[in-house]
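User: quick one, fold this
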Amino acid sequence: MSHSLENTMPDAVVMSEAVPESGVKSPARRQILTMATALGGAAFAGALFNPARADLVAAVGKIFYLDPIVLNFAYELEELETDFFTRATSSNGFASLDERQQNVIFNIAAQDKVHFEQLGKIRDRRGDRASRGTSQSSSRVPRSFRYGSLGTRDELLAMALDLKENSLFAYHGAVGLLKDPRLLAAAAAIAGVEGRHTAALRETMGLDPVPAPYEGALEAQVSGRKLSRYGFVGGASL
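Assistant:
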């Protein structure tokens, strides 16, 4: 497994700084979007994984430019993954892993941190208020997540796989909401690595590393609901 993302994260992603005009097709829509992101960005982010509001999200996604809200969703997702795998390396369950399994967890923790930091830079470079929130990514207070017991090998690996599979499926599910090709490239690059993380975890658990010819996809409201058990709120109030 590679220890570098240099060949995975496109250069164009690093240079992403502005919201393209093509994202909103008319001045009227731009005005409505500005008002929506200023007044209700956090609430709409929560609606992304509320099953009762799934139709609303799908309908609005066809009209408005949702990239800032999806970016917040992905940013918190990477924060969750970084937090979990960093904590995992100091857990009792980690001590019971063999050397190969420990190396996989270490590698995932390091690469998820790269994802989280890169998405933070993109948020800070963009001009849209909804993706930046009220403060720069580097100065915001880290979110507090919660996990069950990581005291045994099986508990740690089962939770790691659950988190990775849901994160991977969430990235695939976000494709239909993104309009900025630079953000789409970032999501695709990260999703590819998430897939390799999932395969590596499955292999170390004695499972088929590639159990199906296609990777799954979940709509944001479904993956968000599944991840809410860890304290994930879908990018709201970032």
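User: anything notable?
Assistant: The chain is about 60% helix and 0% strand.
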